[in-house]
Amino acid sequence: MSNPFRDDLVARLRADACTVVIFGATGDLNHRKLIPALYNLAVDGELPPGVRIVGFARRDWSNEFFRESLEKINKEVSRSGHDPEVWAKFAESIEYHCSEFTDQEGYKGLAERLDAIDSERGGKGNRLFYVASAPEFFDDILESLKGAGLNEAKEGGWSRVIVEKPFGTDLATAQHLNEVVNATFQEKDTYRIDHYLGKETAQNIMVLRFANAIFEPLWNSSYVDHVQITCAEHFGMEGGRGGYYDKSGALRDMVQNHLLQLLSLVAMEPPTDLSADGVRDEKVKVFRSMRQWDTPEKVAENVVRGQYVKGYINGEEVPGYREEDRVNPESETEAYVAVKVMLDTWRWSGVPFYVRMGKRLPKKATEISIHFKDVPGVLFNAVPGGVPGANVLVIRIQPDEGISLRMNSKLPGAAVRMEPVKMDFHYSSSFGKSSPEAYERLLLDAMAGDATLFARRDEVEEAWRFVDHIERAWHESDNKPPMTEFTAGSWGPKEADEMLGREGREWRRL
């Protein structure tokens, strides 16, 4: 019997040759993320031979124009640079299919073309459908795929679907979309993508915890004081993003998916194995253990929302949130949110997880910091300055991927004086190459049938359940928690600092 794993013994299934159909192929996601990811896989020799790419969209483009459009952007954004010879060979596998998302005839034509591709290359009929369109077309695309019989795998092959975020806008819409997806594809063939889980450092969280004996014994309420998860962005609503963002906000756009997913990796119990469901079973338990802030009073105490006002970023004046392009001048949408999350589990009883996300902060960075408890100070009471601070383990997700550990050390000299020092690991310098882009790993995993880094239905719904209570308190209750303000270029509203300050803690500066 052949070994289903790669010959280099990496615990990962082989990716199969397939046809990748990308809906919304003329959009920014395909041009800037998906095609460059597939191109870089080809450069690295990771893309299975025989992979074909079909772009599906409404614009009346030719194959040649589509390829030229993709090449232009690839030259700008490709991680590995742009090699004209490699691109020319790669582009031979790309074609374009023009159709409305609601036109069943267009899907019949797609089915005929996919059959022809399989006949040309002698393929098994493996199809990977990537729904990268605007969210309002998700239902139409999924139901039309079913209407054309494209959701059914051919004998000896497979048919899978990747669905982009946002996966719903609240619990009810997420449940509806899940019903539509599961009426079209089986759960095992459904891949709800969250690109944060494809980032190298996010993948490394389980290795850090479970492959290093020095960390996991300390990874609990006996030793950890609290955890912070921060996503800071220095940009605002450039590029017309205000129209989308003002309907979404920081909580739904980032916290519900990306940041709560990171929290689940930090907080989960060791899985029974590294199978997709083994890992995701433990993540779901974390989501189910989140204490619900289900009244306006609880939300006011444990959640801070805010909007930035005019300020300066890198020396340049920037407008306030309500003055941004396509933002309602009377908007009640948060551009900053800080949430205290409590997990009612044996491991994490009494340990707060502080999650924050903000626009127009001083820099762009995402990190997780594990703040350990203070040591008993009695031994160093007479030392000038005492112990300078507790140990902090920092997992940098972006942009400088790596891990650092702050510990205390004695300063050279006769006197006993201490200062914090840092042990620092950088992916780029330690391994001599840049990390693959998140979409590269995720696309390859979908081709291999490995759903470990994709969200399962119950994960999505439990995360929405937590977020919905907060959203209702903000927008539907008679006693709405206030909207705070902060100056663009600062680290957020003072109310967020006060939320931690009430418990003797403070935010870590990135």
From TrEMBL:
EC number(s) on file: 1.1.1.49
Pfam name, any one: G6PD_N
Skewed-composition ranges (Basic and acidic residues): 494-510
All copies of domain Glucose-6-phosphate dehydrogenase C-terminal, residue ranges: 206-508
Domain Glucose-6-phosphate dehydrogenase NAD-binding: 21-204
Catalytic activity from the UniProt record: D-glucose 6-phosphate + NADP(+) = 6-phospho-D-glucono-1,5-lactone + NADPH + H(+)
One record GO biological process: glucose metabolic process
GO molecular function: glucose-6-phosphate dehydrogenase activity; NADP binding
The entry's keywords: Carbohydrate metabolism, Glucose metabolism, NADP, Oxidoreductase
Pathway membership: Carbohydrate degradation; pentose phosphate pathway; D-ribulose 5-phosphate from D-glucose 6-phosphate (oxidative stage): step 1/3
Residues involved in substrate binding: 195, 199, 233, 253, 359, 364
Active site residues per record: 258 (proton acceptor)
Residue numbers binding NADP(+): 58, 100-101, 165
Region annotation Disordered: where it falls in the sequence: 478-510
GO CC term, one of those recorded: cytosol
Top-level EC class as recorded in UniProt: oxidoreductase
Listed SUPFAM superfamilies: Glyceraldehyde-3-phosphate dehydrogenase-like, C-terminal domain (SSF55347), NAD(P)-binding Rossmann-fold domains (SSF51735)
Protein family membership: Belongs to the glucose-6-phosphate dehydrogenase family.
Protein role: Catalyzes the oxidation of glucose 6-phosphate to 6-phosphogluconolactone.
Protein name per UniProt: Glucose-6-phosphate 1-dehydrogenase
Gene from which the chain derives: zwf
